[in-house]
Amino acid sequence: MHKQILKKLSKKAVVVRLLTCVAAAIMITYFYPHPESNHYNYEQNRPWNYAKLIAPFDIPIHADSTTILAARDSLEAHFVPVYEINQLMIDSVIAELPPVPGTNYRNELAARLRKIYSSGVVDGQTRENITDGRLPKVRILDKNVLSEMSTSHFTSARDIYLRLDSTITDPGLHQYFSSANLQNILRPNIIYNDAESRRHYDYDYLTLTADRGVIQQGQTIIDKGTIISPQDFTNLRTYERMIEASITKAGKSDWLMLFGQFLYVVMLIIVLYGYLMFYNRRIYNEVRAFSFIMLLITVFFLVALALNTFVGSGIYIAPLTIVPVLVLVFFDGRTALMVSSVLTLICAAITSFPLEFIFLQFSAASVAVYTLRKLNQRSELLRTAGFVAATYLIAYVALELLMNGTLEGFAWRMVVYLIVNAALSSMAYVLMSGVERLFGFISEVTLVELADTNNPLLRQLNDECPGTFQHSLSVSNLAADAAKRIGANEQLVRAGALYHDVGKLSNPAFFTENQHGVNPHDSLQPEQSARIVINHVSDGLRRADKAGLPAVIKDFIREHHGRGKAKYFYYTYCKLHPDEVVDPAPFAYPGPNPRSRETAVLMMADAVEAASRSLQEHTPRSISALVNKIIDNQISEGMFNESPLEFRDVPVIKEAFIKRLKTIYHSRIVYPDAPKNVSPAVHDQ
């Protein structure tokens, strides 16, 4: 049967899978960082994780960022600005003094001003800087001669006015001084020279930040394991810029590097594609599941890239362990590790320390898969998150000791990042619900919740259709046991079996298991009875939609009779119309036939359990004959041609049914009547 299904895979599905892979590869490559020549990933104050780097040519030793910053701060604090002295300014000021005929006041005030100006007059802002101690000296440019001068004797126009106002005692001279309008006449004779100051500032800055020498060709740029100092970081950047310039001169194309990145991503996706094709046909054959895997890898790569771009070392915050958890929950652990490995290798190319990143993520993903295994309770995610956090910390310590031989480089920032990462991995619970709704998958924990008989729909079935409820319980146990033996999803079969007959709630009395001596079919025509019985499938689907049951559970309702017929009423109609060619369509269920191993097992269990109730005697021989007859008839009618059930599964399923039915209908001991001489106290016990 399985080979028949593989042969029927449509070309359309193959094309969709290939297009999905190509789209994922293009998306990832498009957002990949595309450095032109940077072959190294490193950070300041972290170890150099590559081999010893030898200079292929002479490399100038530029000042590092720390030195440049210190030079700038020092220059800002100690730079002596350039001022220019204007010897003729005093003559210009005196020329503006008003004349007073018959007095000597103008000459006397002029003499005082000449004496003050000889000490130097500056503008108000400069005087304020001098007073605050920010400008103890200046450089004076006088006739192209530059000399330093103390500013302690400098004054300002305001200070001149106040001094004269307080020192002139002659009333006539003071009156002349007041009327001379000096506040508008006085101007500085020592003036700030912006151009010369800027030129000297730039010269001093270049002197302080000049190259420290040259790393000659053949000398070591940096040794493996060396902590990258600010100067080492600057040397490495200089080396990369020079390499980039040499590549540009050589005419090498950036497209080749882009093509290399595309090939890198494509090869990893091909590895995953091959794994799914050869070792997990369940995912490979289901386009929806295959697309989910590719989407998961693409989305979490983009999340990791965004964090790494906007946060320093932010890729270590990216909760990539969510990926194996989601794959494990909906598929299996082996696929979870494979998908996680591919994602880790894709992301490793954008990290500063690929080896460190791969080791951390591989360890965390493995622990997440091993500790979770089957998610039956949502609280197990918190326990797994704790194990992941511990694994991250142990792995990080191991890496520090491996690469450095000491914990001196131990960064608490990394510890915080990794703990946040582990905590975010518990958010897989939130994503699970979204994935279930978007892709129609169903998790183990959801199946456990659905199989709870306190579920409102199951409680209603128990209250209104007790016979159907007991039948569903028996079918659930019978089918789950068989599913476990053939490696099908036991929990899915158990939950699906409990709901497969909920449509009988619409007409409980029309089904044998709910009748109590009165059969309403006795008053109906066979075709009417068949219609009522067949409608329990569509009624069940409506109730499932109303209750919000997942699509995979509705498949059990839809497929548990397949395209089979309501044979009792069909045969009854044929007997009543012996001369008529009877159309079986009115007596056929809408189908489809089972399309999964789980729904196929349910169809078998449903028919076997119902028929076992009608046996006259429940001997091992009669039970075996019944099971073989029913299942063989279903196979001969082609009921399982659309399911991936294999021929080798059939004997295992039969054996499981026979063993469980023998247990259910085993012979019981006949207890004898109590002898007359038994003490009354024994009867009371």
**What percent strand?**
under 5%
Q: Taking Cα atoms only, what radius of gyration do you get, to the nearest Å?
A: 45 Å
Approximately how much helix is present in the residues? 55-70%
* Assembly status: single chain
The computed structural class is mainly alpha
Averaging pLDDT over every residue, what do you get? 87
Given as residue ranges, the uncertain stretches (5+ residues, pLDDT < 50) are 1-6, 681-685
* DSSP summary: helix tally: 31
**Net shape:** elongated
The beta-strand count equals 10
Distance between the termini: 59 Å
Strands side by side in the biggest sheet: 6-5-3-8
**Largest sheet data:** 4 strands, mixed
Describe this structure as you would to a colleague.
By secondary structure, the chain is mainly alpha-helical. Strands 6-5-3-8 form a four-stranded mixed β-sheet. Strand 5 and strand 6 form a beta hairpin. Helix 25 runs antiparallel to helix 26.
Topology of this protein?
Blueprint: H1 2-7, H2 11-31, E1 53-54, E2 59-60, H3 65-78, E3 82-85, H4 89-95, H5 105-117, E4 121-122, H6 124-131, E5 137-142, E6 145-150, E7 155-156, H7 157-167, H8 171-179, H9 182-185, E8 190-192, H10 194-208, E9 214-215, E10 220-222, H11 230-250, H12 254-279, H13 281-285, H14 287-310, H15 322-330, H16 333-348, H17 354-372, H18 380-404, H19 412-425, H20 428-439, H21 444-450, H22 456-464, H23 466-486, H24 490-499, H25 526-547, H26 551-559, H27 567-576, H28 597-612, H29 620-636, H30 649-664, H31 680-684
Parallel strand pairs: 3-5, 4-7
Antiparallel strand pairs: 1-10, 2-9, 3-8, 5-6
